[in-house]
Every structure is written in C-alpha cells, then in structure tokens.
Amino acid sequence: MPTHVSLTGVTQLAAGVEESMALRSDGTLLAWGMDQFGLLGNGTQNNGNVASPTPVTAVTGVTGLAIGGNTQLVIAAAGVMPNVVGENRFTAVAVLNDLGLIVHVTLIPDPDPLCANVGSVASQFPQPGALVTPGQDAFLRVYGPHQGGCA
Fold first, then answer.
1. Best exposed site among 19, 46, 72, 89 by fewest CB in 10 Å?
2. Are residues 108 and 133 in the same domain?
3. Contact criterion met (CB below 8 Å) for 72 and 19
4. Do 66 and 85 sit in the same domain of this protein?
C-alpha cells in the first residue's frame, strides 16, 4: 500500500517491488519497505515492513544506488589502505583521516630502552592493500616510552 514519506537532502531515489531507497547528499542511505532479505544491512531480517525511511548504517560514502526486483545495489567510495607502519603517528593518522577512516590509536611500550621508536607506528589494521571505505575503523599500535622509562 502506498505510504507518504518525507525526505530532505536527497540526491537519488530507487524503488523496487516492495522496497525503496534514498541517497542523501552526504553519502548516507535511507531505506524503507519490505524487509524480508535484510534491507537495512544490519544483519537482521525483520520479515516485516520498515514503515518510514530508516538509516542504513552498515554503509557510508554511497555514490549511487539501484534496485531491480528484490535486489539492491549500492555503490560506495573505497580506497586502498596504505602501509603506515614505521611512519610518525601524526602523519599516519592524517593520511588515514584523509581516507575518511576513524582512527583508533593504542600505545605500546617501545622495546628499545633508548626509546628510538617512540611515536612511530608499530602495526596497523586493516593490512596494507585492503579496500577501505569512509567511516570504517582503522587501528594503529604506536610505540610509547619504554617500560622502565627512556635512557
């Protein structure tokens, strides 16, 4: 049954047999209609009706969308995770922020008593070469002062 919905900031619309989607200008996605195949992208199937436009939080940075039958296609911007191991913490964070990633930093003790590695990235996740999308989490382990202090 047709239902009136109110939308603002929408740049694209797509409608299928029993579901609809709207793309906002900020790259976020809204969906509504029959949710028998996981319409909201959150790993659940309500097997019911999503009555009003609801944010699809599993994907961000959307640039296009289409619906055909009961199939939804969403195109989102992606980048390649660079290798930032060994880089200065602040440089690495800036590079990852430029990709739109949400960066989480954990300090670990420098194994060198002279603290030669303090401030550099020890490891990263996702691994270099992985496809990443804006809004995705990235994790850096960064060397801090040696366990017993710096010599």
1. 46
2. yes
3. yes
4. no
pLDDT tier at 109, thresholds 50, 70, 90: very high
Is residue 146 very low, low, confident or very high in pLDDT (cuts 50, 70, 90)? very high
CATH number for the domain spanning 114: value is 3.30.10.20
Question: Do strands 102-109 and 137-144 pair parallel, antiparallel, or not at all (unpaired)?
Answer: parallel
Check: pTM over 0.70? Answer yes or no: no
CA–CA–CA angle 19, 62, 104 (5° rounding): 125
Predicted pLDDT of residue 46 = 66
CA 36, CA 12: separation in Å to the nearest integer?
23
* Residue 132 belongs to domain spanning: 79-144
Residues 68 and 111 in one domain: no
